[in-house]
Amino acid sequence: MAVKASSVDNRTRSTVSICIVIGMCCFFYILGAWQKSGFGKGDSIALEITKRTDCTILPNLSFDTHSKVDSSSSDLVLPVKKFKPCPDRYTDYTPCQDQNRAMKFPRENMNYRERHCPPQKEKLHCLIPPPKGYVAPFPWPKSRDYVPFANCPYKSLTVEKAIQNWVQYEGNVFRFPGGGTQFPQGADKYIDQLASVIPIANGTVRTALDTGCGVASLGAYLLKRNVLAMSFAPRDSHEAQVQFALERGVPAVIGVLGTIKLPYPSRAFDMAHCSRCLIPWGANDGMYMMEVDRVLRPGGYWVLSGPPINWKVNYKGWQRTKNDLEAEQNRIEEIADLLCWEKVSEKGEMAIWRKRVNTESCPSRQDESTVQMCESTNPDDVWYKKMKACVTPLPDVKDDSEVAGGAIKPFPDRLHAVPPRIANGFIPGVSSEAFQKDDKMWKKHVKAYSTVNKYLLNGRYRNIIDMNAGFGGFAAAIESPKSWVMNVVPTIAKMSTLGAVYERGLIGIYHDWCEAFSTYPRTYDLIHASGLFTLYKNKCSMEDIILEMDRILRPEGAVIIRDDVDVLIKVNSLAQGMRWNTKMVDHEDGPLMREKILYAVKQYWVGGNQTAVA
Q1: Which SS3 state, helix, strand or coil, does residue 600 take?
Q2: Rounded Cα–Cα distance for residues 175 and 184 (Å)
Q3: C-alpha pair distances (Å), 302 with each of 190, 216, 305, 410, 500
Q4: Which candidate, 237, 232, 274, places its Cα nearest to that of 157?
């Protein structure tokens, strides 16, 4: 009996020991997670959401095409509001460039082609329907040359621009031969001509601005040279030109040089380009050239091809008088001298100027009585600000060899280097160390994203938009020839970081997400938004922002939203009513972090057979 008793005691002690060990392991795991979370008290809300959502896996969310997913097991804790499709007539609706509204505004200086957004009571609260027959775009680089007809069913450009080789209609696709008004033989040969003067091959020129871009064939072929072009054109009689560009997988927005400043920071672009863009460069006291000067980096290049360049030889084909063309070119030359641009080439119908690297190297600028300097102390404060005929001052330099604002490394070295605006203290409160920490953090975030969405880095998502880009860390972490990112810095952001984004060799734009974005429906394959809804809390309707996300997202496109868990619960409820399949996932640092990630995939559907609402 004593032996049996001893055996029982030993088993009891062993059981107790095991329980103690397990208890200590659990305690130290929870303690470690608690300490890592940065909170001083237990996060009961996050724990509860984790329980409800089974955050570590996504068993019911598929990123494959034409997925038929039952989202009944989703993470809802709020009732779902179901959004109905809009009538089919809204299939290409651009709220802030609506043609009917545009005609109510003055035509002077293209005011009517600028952004004119609907008031709150006129905003649509329905889902913009894709056209019947809509299909996923071709993968890059095939998409550069071919666009499915059903996605953009407009043939007018195939007739209007037939001899200029813009676009051709062939069966059920549009084919883009790579031509343009100034390069009917193809953009490649035209870029070769540019590269004979401008250092494109070595990474010195990485960012370009193409004004009046047409179908953006220049931007499409510059991508072969590792140059990212921000192309823009108005929504006008050349129907769907920007829509074609985005369907091709080329960066572009609806825009125009009119009465308000361009939504880009100062000293942003390595090159600006106009090829028969129909912009009156000599008008309004040179205001448009001065705006190009503002966004052009010191040492950057401006290319003008077409009328009135070399008018003595070319005037017969332009159907304009010699006097008219001569006066226009003389005026452009005068403004270029005033801006202290140096003409480095004029050959055929193309002229190229280079902006000086600083004011000290510009002798004529020393007498500022001859130049109207802009009074604004912040050259990046541009949202809905009136354009003026004045020259934007450059940062001071110590000698005439220093680049104003700081020299930038060639691409790709500049991608992860500390931007000069940060290194030189132009962004208050941001140190080089803070930037490097942010850059490292986004590499970590993207690594976690790619374990959930296996298509993120393989080229499935060509057109990507980051709605709250910060320093461009997300875009830098996924940078690849397979995709491009439109980095949006909200106008209400605490810091104006878009200049630093450009100094990394990335592109982007200022925007207020209380309004519609300057693009066509279905132009982005993936939308990323970090902290966006917290930023806009109490600023405007969450519903309006999510409906705008749905408008610009392609069917079967993906969404990644990072935000506070309470915010994501509300976002998820709205998203579920828009035919999105969703799943919430823990922060990569563990379930006790309040920040969560919501992944979503927009279901495939088209117009023509749904119950629509006005």
Answers
A1: strand
A2: 14
A3: 15, 17, 10, 19, 21
A4: 237
Q: Residue 268 in contact with residue 502, Cβ under 8 Å?
A: yes
**Share of residues in the chain with pLDDT > 90 (%):** 74
Q: What are phi and psi of 325, to 5 degrees?
A: -70, -40
- Say whether pLDDT at 481 is over 70: yes
Give one word for 267, left, alpha or beta, with left for phi > 0 and alpha for psi -120 to 50. Answer: left
Residues forming beta bridges with residue 340, ordered by sequence position: none
Question: Residue 463, Cβ neighbours under 10 Å: how many?
Answer: 29
Contacts of 569 (CB under 8 A, 6+ apart): 49, 75, 77, 78
Sign of the dihedral defined by the CA atoms of residues 338, 382, 508, 186, in that order: negative
pLDDT at 493 over 80: yes
Reported as type and span, the H/E element at residue 421 is helix 420-423
pTM score: 0.88
Question: Can you read off the two tokens belonging to residue 43?
Answer: 């996060």
Q: Alpha helix (H) ranges present in 486-598? A: 498-503, 532-535, 542-552, 565-576
DSSP strand pairing (252-254 vs 507-511): unpaired
Distance CA 309, CA 330 (A): 10
Specify the pLDDT at position 70.
38
- 61 close to 581: Cβ distance less than 8 angstroms: yes
Tell me the two tokens of residue 325.
């063309």
- The total number of residues written for the chain in this structure: 614
Q: What is the mean pLDDT of residues 536-555?
A: 97
| Rounded Cα distance, 294 and 376, in Å | 12
At position 11, the amino acid (one-letter code) is R
